[in-house]
Amino acid sequence: MIYTLYHVHDPMCSWCYAFKPTLDELRKNLKDNIKLVHVVGGLAKHSNEDMPLNQQEMISNIWHEIEAKVGTKFNHDFWKKCKPRRSTYLSCQATMLARYENKEDEMIEAIQEAYYLKALNPSDSSTLVQLAKQIGMDEVKFEKDLHAEKIEKELIDELNLRRSINVRSFPSLVLKYKKETYPINIQFGDYKAMLSQIEDMCENTYF
């Protein structure tokens, strides 16, 4: 039997960034009949407006909270060097374009590194084009495709997939077999607990 493990995330979600090391370990230990599939969640629609100061403060505080609870490192200079916007759809589209060239994981990592460690803004298309070049994509084609109607429609389809599996928070893991789905309890820093839950479900035929 073949199972799908949906990883629902947003490349600009700080908790998803904190979860990545645990997800990497989980992925390494999944059995061959369990396929991990990334699904972008779309935290915030396209916007050219600066993020309100109170929202900047709230998100900055979340970064500090994650550092304290999980140990993940952030470059807090982002809030001084950049003009933050509450806009993540473009970075979601970037990961989807990279997916079509088998570079999705590379793009997710590049966006997270740029945003959280290098204080660059992935809400800006110029940053995403730079990252596409960095991971070996054709930056001219990428920039054209990034703003095309085709990828915007595909993003809507992916957001509808996320809704169809009843995911409202990121990161989330959902195991699917045929038409049935079952949520996995997210455990930061403990991939074994999640792996055990997944394997138990498969072995006991919950579906």
Describe this structure in words.
With 207 residues, the chain is α+β, with helices and mostly antiparallel strands. Helices cover 52% and strands 12% of the residues. It has nine helices and four strands. It has a four-stranded mixed sheet with strand order 2-1-3-4, with helices on both faces. The protein is globular and about 50 Å long. The termini are close together. The mean pLDDT is 96.
Instruction: Give the N-to-C terminal Cα separation.
Output: 11 Å
- Give the ordered list of helices and strands: EHEHHHHHHHEEH
Q: How many DSSP helices?
A: 9
Q: What portion of residues is helical?
A: 40-55%
What oligomeric assembly is this protein in? single chain
- Poorly predicted segments: none
Give the strand order, joined by hyphens, for the main sheet: 2-1-3-4
Could you give a short account of the major beta sheet?
4 strands, mixed
Strand content: 5-15%
Structural class: alpha+beta
Mean pLDDT metric: 96
Dominant shape: globular
How large, in whole angstroms, is the Cα Rg? 17 Å
Number of strands: 4
Which helices and strands, and how do they pair?
Elements: E1 3-9, H1 14-29, E2 34-40, H2 53-69, H3 78-81, H4 89-99, H5 104-116, H6 125-134, H7 139-146, H8 149-164, E3 172-177, E4 180-184, H9 191-203
Parallel strand pairs: 1-2
Antiparallel strand pairs: 1-3, 3-4
Helix pairs in contact: 1-9, 4-5, 4-8, 5-6, 6-7
Comma- or semicolon-separated keywords:
52% helix; single chain; 9 helices; four-stranded mixed β-sheet; globular; 207 residues; alpha+beta
